[in-house]
Amino acid sequence: MQQLEMLEKTDERRCCVCKEVKSESEFHFRKVSGRQAQCKECRRVTDRQRYQQNQELFKEKARMNYQKNKEHHKALVKRRAKNSIKAKASYILNDAVKKKSLTRQPCEECGAEKADAHHDDYAKPLEVRWLCRMHHKQWHAKHGEALNACTVRHWTPPQEATQ
């Protein structure tokens, strides 16, 4: 009976570095191997130490990667510049969600839990509507690109203008 109790799943793990017992949410999850043995805090310290010890090696690898994929990097810079307002709005929004100053909401139309953030105006990055992927696509099909998007590639005129 005691052996069965030991096999029961718990929400806690012991870190292999600091030896503290912490909740599973304190450990990174990987699809292939499951939860890591190091807690997030110990992993952060380990990664920082590894980077500081091998800083020149990391920089050299980055330089070599750039030289190897120079054309790809140039194209990426052009794409980012073309959509810079959209990219900045997306970055600001994702940062706010990460810092928990803004919380994800369900879809306004159907209530689906998984929803995209839709900007009606990219100049106001934190003013978003939460729409599931289907309703987000429908909105753009009906209304075209949002204000201040600065892109022409996927722009479609609003229905009011075409009638």
Structural write-up:
The chain has helices spanning 2-7, 40-53, 55-68, 70-82, 84-98, 133-143, 159-162; strands at residues 12-14, 21-23, 27-30, 34-39, 116-119, 128-131. It is an alpha+beta fold. Strands 1-2 form a two-stranded antiparallel sheet. Strands 3-4 form a two-stranded antiparallel sheet. A two-stranded antiparallel ribbon has the order 5-6. The longest helix is centred in the middle third of the chain and has 15 residues, at 84-98. The radius of gyration is 23 Å and the shape is flat. The protein starts with a helix and ends with a helix.
Gist of the model:
With 163 residues, this protein is α+β, with helices and mostly antiparallel strands. The protein has seven helices and six strands, in the order αββββααααββαα. The termini are far apart.
List keywords for this structure.
single chain, 163 residues, alpha+beta, two-stranded antiparallel sheet, 7 helices, 47% helix
The portion of residues assigned to helices is 40-55%
Oligomer, anyone?
single chain
Poorly predicted ranges (pLDDT <50, ≥5 residues)?
151-155
Q: Whole-Å distance between the termini?
A: 75 Å
Overall average pLDDT:
84
Q: What number of domains?
A: 2
Backbone structural class: alpha+beta
What does the largest sheet look like?
2 strands, antiparallel
Topology as H/E string? Answer: HEEEEHHHHEEHH
Rg? 23 Å
Helix/strand layout:
Blueprint: H1 2-7, E1 12-14, E2 21-23, E3 27-30, E4 34-39, H2 40-53, H3 55-68, H4 70-82, H5 84-98, E5 116-119, E6 128-131, H6 133-143, H7 159-162
